[in-house]
Model the fold of this input.
Amino acid sequence: MLLLDIVTFELENSAKVFKRWEHVESKVSSKGLKVVNQWFDAGGGRIITVYDVESIKDYVTYNFSFTDLCHIEVFPVIGAEEFKKFASKCMGNLTAENSP
Done:
């Protein structure tokens, strides 16, 4: 499952966040979690990450350590091509149901 998270933190906490990140990266087992891609806000204070996770528990285990320093928004996402196929199938089903 793909999850996108947006981590926001106060700029004055940047050093704490990055130090904690180094600690978590070295100590927390994340067998069921893979970072697909990650972006840093050029202005600071925000990190956007896409994860491929086996379960929500894998994600929570990895990110729980940041909840005192950061605000974390997370939601499932789907690739554009996969969504197009899904939407097309749904639209086809709706059209078929509404036909006389």
Notes: Residues 29 and 62 are 8 Å apart (CA to CA). The domain at 2-98 is CATH 3.30.70.1060 (Alpha-Beta Plaits).
